[in-house]
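Input record (one chain):
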Amino acid sequence: MSSLEQNSIIKTYFEGSRSLSNIFWASVVSLGGLGFFLTGLSSFFQVNLLVFSDSSTINFLPQGIVLVFYGTVGLILGIFLALTAFWNVGAGYNEYNRNSQEVLLYRQNFPGKNRKITLKFRFQDIKSVKMKIKEGLNPTRQILLCLTDSREIPLIGIDQPKALNKIEEEAITIAKHLNVFLETE
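The corresponding structure, as predicted from the sequence alone:
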């Protein structure tokens, strides 16, 4: 995530799902799924489809059919992860514009009618900015835009938890720019 600040506009950019770790896991899951699938098919056709092991001796019922099932699930999951990274789902930006008195939230989604998600809020509809911090085994550190109609819109991604001082600094900057209160939870 990077930030660009001018006098009247603050723009914060977000990385999507196109990261090295997501591409790595898509590859690993796809290769594992392909291995299971070919092992199951080897047991059905009684032909060794894998070079590095002899899987033609496995009984198709019940082991081979289970391997085909797990292989199919692994391949589908791997393809889903690869496409999610390819489409860069979740990438976007937040723009806080004093000139137009609007907050613009833009994110990319899966292809289709709602590929580009754009939310606009007027400054007068914003009640406060809230920091939600929960420590422990599964820590959450969020900045939320609280609206007058009691909706809470997340402003930062849910990837790796950021350092507490960075979250506080960003929340204070946004609250000052929008001229609203800063809440903590």
